[in-house]
């Protein structure tokens, strides 16, 4: 019964929570820049507007691929919240991303294609660490099942601080935050228009945004797993820490400038090796 | 089991027919018949074996005449190599060939070895049979159509099709023999045949490049053959037996290391990967045959057979490290390639690296993953080679850049290629489940380096496949229309492969229970459930959803009204989306290229270091083993 | 809730401006003026824009570009001509290569004169454009599109 509730809650609430978080993020960012910023509900207004616009498209498949991206992301998230296999969740997450890349490159548009290429590069940059995170959970708890993580007496983060750091580092890619927002960005100034979303308009873009909200909650869910254990108060701690991590991502977004792709790839791989690899090595030796 | 001689004999007999058939039509008919008969005999044989209770069968304890015939065969092969070496002035293959044949004959005639069965039939053999017969058979069928197209494109190449078909069928015969053999001397004989035939097939065009590459393949495979011969000699002298299973049970390090060398060369692991890349000069069917179903699988087959002996010793560590290292380096080098066949070659090497890495650990789980990888790799790689070959005949190029918008130009080929690519790396297709198990197994066996290899390697694998897939699916009005010249028999083969691929993914749980588990059981004596049924079932359900979701979305999205507008090119598009206005106010063609990261992942940067590291590991292994063994 | 005026995204195009007005447009994004207060985002992408903000008069090179960008924006959409050149052609009006104001090529909804237009007047013009945007959306709904 519990998994069903979780999954339903995820499917229904994730876009709302994600949009709210986006709104908070925009306000916090604005305050960091000594601006007032938009209203909290701005992401909802944006979505509403996008759905009400005229449907224009550059080809007939983009909408379908974007919808597939959304649905497969929802499946991946549901599996996480149902307590299924973490490794499988991550694999399906990257399959979902594939559909986004296909959607962007389906139109032979120079900007969208560049964005798609960069998105692939970003995937290549963060993929090793996500796999290592799953391995870390497996070594710590003896299982890949998310539901098993929740029943331990200790929080996983005790055994995998390096992986947590690495995951925070690479998640900036997934949140599309500076300095790793190469393929597309929430910010106005982009060297290649809107990158991967250049050819998306109205409903298509709205679907993409909703999918991003689902993904955001999914990632925060993984952060959550680092801290949660069998005690009830660990859930509160995990919530607070997740909020803190989200704030730190926003902070990082505001204090750093976009990097070149080489810096992105090499820094992510080095962090994966140093923070993730060493953590895994220690886990393997003492577990 | 009276059928066994037929299994090897039928393709061999067909191979003998081709030189006398000059008529193209008749030859086609014979190939169809041959492939059909091979598949039929395999099915009947498998069915009867299963009906008999699917017991492990040891056969032919007394085979004096055949032994002598094989010795004659070994000498004949040596003579052929000497002749070819002398003709093209290559000394290394001659030396290697003479050395190993002499060593083998000396051992055979001076050492008494315990009698034992010469052939074995078990689940692993049966699996290899099916792979060889069906994938190999369909490749033969594909070849009929392909070679017609090939020779109409390449007028400069002498038409030696009878020879080519002979070699194809002979190769299948040798592979059947190889997977059946339990006696190492027999296995060695078939092993040498595959080396020589691959050499002949790579040199098909007789261009300078082809000759060079074929000799490269020859000497590397002969080096492996030498390792094989040393292993046989050692086992015969020290243990007095030449049974493959005794190598496993004895667990002596030197023969293991030598057999590992043989397996590594055959499966084109670093530092021997050069031959496989060079082999791409051959016509595509031989690439498909050599690099998907047969040749390279022979190496992996040998390693998997002896993998229980690798568990936890030095040889196992060396083999698995080389495998893991090959996996990551080859996948990185594949990023910088724009030639379709080169990408496939690197991906073959890289996937074989993963299989070898699994075999080197030698635990139930890893072997389970390795067998799975082998099945899926055979099917999807053979399919990819065929579709690239067909695309090359149609477009006149196998450059991935030229496949831009293939989905519009030649949709059928694009779909087949797409399924093949998806099968190679996407969740929830089969390859991924094997990677999943391999990762888990590596963690369980505490092999930190391999865990890192698989984490990084799968990331770079994803990159090069994704960009290819994206290239195929680009919507782009073609510059000129192309006519799909792919013939029916080529499509028959490719569609068969695509259907097999999808079925395999759907029936994943059944394949695991019926085929893969028994193999692990036979190799290790016990089999645990490597992956829970629920996970496998989830995978199958996921697969369905991967198809259903876009299909459903297709219908949903079709209902919406849409106005098509030109793509965004800073407002300077001209006409359709193919041109833009340049700074001189003139019309300029839009050209989109993939991203190859040549300066970072190019072969010229990574090749030499990776060769040196892998060679050093191998030499180090030999030094320690020889130092410790003597 | 889905009033388009709550989240107007704008596309800024320089048809032939001297960059005076363009600097002022960018000024609007700075903390002092902060047009994000109104939910306005300066996107570079016509597919995602609701307001086309053009500076400078149209010349023979930019004419086709302006037309194409306008055609790539989904309805409802409005055009704001910023600066006197965009409104009428300004001092360049009689030049051999100048076609005139933006309205010689595409329909303009709001004119913001000035040389250069002040940020306050640009914001004012955009806010006036929002009303037009809402009207257009209502008209669109009425047409049942």
UniProtKB/TrEMBL annotation, chain A:
Transmembrane segments: 6-24, 63-81, 87-104, 125-144, 156-175, 204-226, 232-252, 264-286
GO cellular component terms, A-Z: plasma membrane
Keyword hit for Transmembrane: yes
Keyword Cytoplasm included in the entry's annotation: no
Subcellular location: Membrane
Chain coiled-coil ranges: none
InterPro entries attached to this UniProt entry: ComplexI_Subunit1 (IPR052561), NADH_UbQ_OxRdtase_su1/FPO (IPR001694)
Membrane topology: Multi-pass membrane protein
Protein name: NADH-quinone oxidoreductase subunit H
Keyword line: Membrane, Transmembrane, Transmembrane helix
Pfam families: NADHdh
TrEMBL record, chain B:
Keyword flag Membrane: yes
Keyword Transmembrane: yes
Localisation per UniProt entry: Endomembrane system; Membrane
Keywords: Membrane, Transmembrane, Transmembrane helix
Topology in the lipid bilayer: Multi-pass membrane protein
Listed transmembrane segments: 6-22, 29-51, 66-84, 91-109, 121-142, 163-180, 186-204, 216-235, 247-265, 272-294, 314-336, 343-362, 368-385, 406-428, 448-470, 491-515, 535-556, 608-629
Domain NADH-Ubiquinone oxidoreductase (complex I) chain 5 N-terminal residue range list: 119-149
Cellular component terms (Gene Ontology): endomembrane system; membrane
Annotated NADH:quinone oxidoreductase/Mrp antiporter transmembrane domain residues: 181-454
InterPro entries assigned: CPA3_Na-H_Antiporter_A (IPR050616), ND/Mrp_TM (IPR001750), Proton_antipo_N (IPR001516)
Main location per the UniProt record: membrane
Family to which this protein belongs: Belongs to the CPA3 antiporters (TC 2.A.63) subunit A family.
PANTHER family (UniProt xref): NA(+)/H(+) ANTIPORTER SUBUNIT (PTHR43373), NA(+)_H(+) ANTIPORTER SUBUNIT A (PTHR43373:SF1)
Protein name in the entry: NADH-quinone oxidoreductase subunit L
Organism: Candidatus Mediterraneibacter stercoravium
TrEMBL record, chain C:
Species for this entry: Candidatus Mediterraneibacter stercoravium
The family this protein is said to belong to: Belongs to the complex I 20 kDa subunit family.
Domain NADH:ubiquinone oxidoreductase-like 20kDa subunit residue range list: 18-128
Primary gene name: nuoB
SUPFAM superfamilies: HydA/Nqo6-like (SSF56770)
InterPro entries, A to Z: Complex_I_20kDa-like (IPR052375), NADH_UbQ_OxRdtase-like_20kDa (IPR006137)
Chain ranges passing through the membrane: none
PANTHER family associated with the record: FORMATE HYDROGENLYASE SUBUNIT 7-RELATED (PTHR42989:SF1), HYDROGENASE-4 COMPONENT I (PTHR42989)
Main EC class the enzyme belongs to: oxidoreductase
Annotated keywords: 4Fe-4S, Iron, Iron-sulfur, Metal-binding, Oxidoreductase
UniProt cofactor(s): [4Fe-4S] cluster
Gene Ontology MF annotations: 4 iron, 4 sulfur cluster binding; metal ion binding; oxidoreductase activity
Protein name stated in the entry: NADH-quinone oxidoreductase subunit NuoB
EC number: 1.6.5.11
């Amino acid at each position: 019964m519990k998994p069903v509730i979780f999954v339903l809650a995820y499917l229904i609430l994730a876009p709302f929570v994600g949009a709210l978080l986006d709104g908070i993020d925009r306000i916090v960012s604005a305050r960091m820049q000594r601006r007032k910023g938009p209203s909290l509900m701005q992401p909802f207004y944006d979505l509403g507007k996008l759905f009400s616009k005229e449907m224009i498209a550059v080809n007939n498949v983009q909408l379908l691929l974007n919808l597939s991206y959304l649905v497969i992301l929802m499946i991946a998230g549901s599996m996480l919240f149902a307590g299924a296999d973490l490794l499988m969740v991550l694999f399906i997450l990257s399959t979902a991303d594939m559909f986004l890349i296909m959607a962007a490159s389906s139109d032979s548009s120079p900007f969208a294609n560049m964005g798609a290429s960069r998105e692939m590069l970003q995937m290549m940059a963060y993929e090793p660490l996500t796999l290592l995170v799953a391995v870390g959970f497996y070594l710590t708890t003896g299982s890949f099942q998310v539901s098993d993580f929740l029943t331990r007496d200790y929080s996983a983060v005790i055994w995998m601080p390096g992986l947590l750091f690495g995951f925070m580092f690479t998640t900036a890619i997934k949140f599309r935050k500076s300095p790793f927002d190469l393929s597309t960005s929430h910010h106005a100034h982009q060297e290649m228009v809107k990158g991967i979303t250049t050819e998306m308009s109205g409903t298509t873009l709205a679907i993409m945004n909703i999918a991003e909200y689902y993904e955001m909650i999914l990632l925060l869910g993984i952060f959550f797993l680092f801290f949660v254990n069998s005690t009830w108060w660990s859930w509160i701690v995990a919530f607070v820490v997740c909020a803190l991590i989200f704030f730190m991502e926003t902070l990082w977004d505001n204090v750093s400038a976009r990097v070149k792709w080489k810096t992105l790839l090499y820094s992510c791989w080095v962090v994966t090796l140093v923070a993730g690899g060493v953590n895994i090595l220690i886990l393997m030796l003492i577990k | 089991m009276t059928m066994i001689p037929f299994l090897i004999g039928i393709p061999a007999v067909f191979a003998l027919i081709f030189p006398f058939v000059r008529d193209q039509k008749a030859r086609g008919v014979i190939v169809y018949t041959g492939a059909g008969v091979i598949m039929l005999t395999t099915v009947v044989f498998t069915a009867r074996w299963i009906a008999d209770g699917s017991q492990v069968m040891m056969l032919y304890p007394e085979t004096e005449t055949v032994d002598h015939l094989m010795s004659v065969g070994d000498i004949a092969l040596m003579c052929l190599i000497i002749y070819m070496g002398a003709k093209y002035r290559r000394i290394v293959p001659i030396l290697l060939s003479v050395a190993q044949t002499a060593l083998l004959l000396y051992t055979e005639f001076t050492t008494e070895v315990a009698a034992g069965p010469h052939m074995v039939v078990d689940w692993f053999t049966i699996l290899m049979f099916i792979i060889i017969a069906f994938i190999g058979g369909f490749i033969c069928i594909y070849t009929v159509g392909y070679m017609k197209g090939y020779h109409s494109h390449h007028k400069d190449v002498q038409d030696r099709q009878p020879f080519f078909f002979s070699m194809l069928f002979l190769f299948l015969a040798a592979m059947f023999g190889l997977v059946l053999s339990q006696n190492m001397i027999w296995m060695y004989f078939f092993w040498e045949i595959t080396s020589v035939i691959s050499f002949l097939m790579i040199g098909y065009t007789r261009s300078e490049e082809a000759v060079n590459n074929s000799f490269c393949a020859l000497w590397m495979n002969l080096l492996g053959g030498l390792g094989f011969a040393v292993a046989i000699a050692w086992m015969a002298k020290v243990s007095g037996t030449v049974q493959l299973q005794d190598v496993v049970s004895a667990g002596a390090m030197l023969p293991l290391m030598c057999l590992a060398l043989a397996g590594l060369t055959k499966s084109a692991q670093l530092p021997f990967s050069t031959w496989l890349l060079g082999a791409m000069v051959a016509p595509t069917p031989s690439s498909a045959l050599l690099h998907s179903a047969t040749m390279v699988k022979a190496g992996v087959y040998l390693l998997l057979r002896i993998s229980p002996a690798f568990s936890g010793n030095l040889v196992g560590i060396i083999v698995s490290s080389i495998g893991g290292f090959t996996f990551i380096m080859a996948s990185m080098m594949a990023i910088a390639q724009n030639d379709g066949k080169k990408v496939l070659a690197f991906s073959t090497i890289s996937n074989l690296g993963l299989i070898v890495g699994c075999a080197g650990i030698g635990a139930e789980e890893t072997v389970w993953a390795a067998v799975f990888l082998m099945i899926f790799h055979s099917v999807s790689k053979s399919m990819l080679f065929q579709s690239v070959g067909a695309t090359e005949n149609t477009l006149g190029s196998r450059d991935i850049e030229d496949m831009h918008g293939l989905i519009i130009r030649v949709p059928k080929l694009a779909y087949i290629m797409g399924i093949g690519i998806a099968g190679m790396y996407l969740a929830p297709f089969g390859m991924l489940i094997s990677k999943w198990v391999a990762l888990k197994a590596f963690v369980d066996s505490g092999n930190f380096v391999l865990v890192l290899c698989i984490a990084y390697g799968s990331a770079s694998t994803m990159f090069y496949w994704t960009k290819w897939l994206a290239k195929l699916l680009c919507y782009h009005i073609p510059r000129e229309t192309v006519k799909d010249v792919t013939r029916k028999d080529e499509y028959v083969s490719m569609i068969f492969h695509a259907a097999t691929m999808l079925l395999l993914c759907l029936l994943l749980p059944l394949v695991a229970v019926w085929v893969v588990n028994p193999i692990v059981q036979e190799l290790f004596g016990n089999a645990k459930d490597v992956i829970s049924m629920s996970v496998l079932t989830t995978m199958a359900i996921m697969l369905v959803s991967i198809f259903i979701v876009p299909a459903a979305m297709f219908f949903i999205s079709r209902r919406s009204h849409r106005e098509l507008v030109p793509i965004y090119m800073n407002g300077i598009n001209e006409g359709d989306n193919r041109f833009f206005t340049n700074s001189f106010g003139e019309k300029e063609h839009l050209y989109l290229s993939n991203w190859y990261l040549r300066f970072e992942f190019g072969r010229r940067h990574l090749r030499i270091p990776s060769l040196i590291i892998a060679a050093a590991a191998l030499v180090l292994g030999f030094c320690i083993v020889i130092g410790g063994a003597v | 809730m889905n009033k388009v005026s709550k989240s107007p995204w704008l596309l800024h195009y320089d048809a032939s401006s001297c960059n005076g007005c363009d600097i002022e447009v960018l000024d609007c994004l700075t903390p002092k003026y902060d047009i994000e207060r109104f939910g306005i985002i300066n996107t570079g992408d016509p597919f995602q824009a609701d307001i086309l903000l053009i500076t400078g008069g149209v010349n023979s090179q930019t004419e086709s570009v302006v037309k194409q960008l306008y055609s790539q924006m989904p309805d409802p959409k409005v055009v704001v001509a910023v600066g006197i050149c965009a409104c009428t052609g300004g001092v360049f009006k009689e030049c051999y290569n100048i076609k005139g104001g933006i309205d010689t090529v595409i329909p303009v909804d709001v004119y913001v004169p000035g040389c250069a237009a002040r940020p306050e007047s640009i914001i004012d013009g955009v806010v006036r454009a929002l009303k037009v945007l809402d009207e257009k959306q209502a008209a669109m709904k009425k047409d049942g599109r």
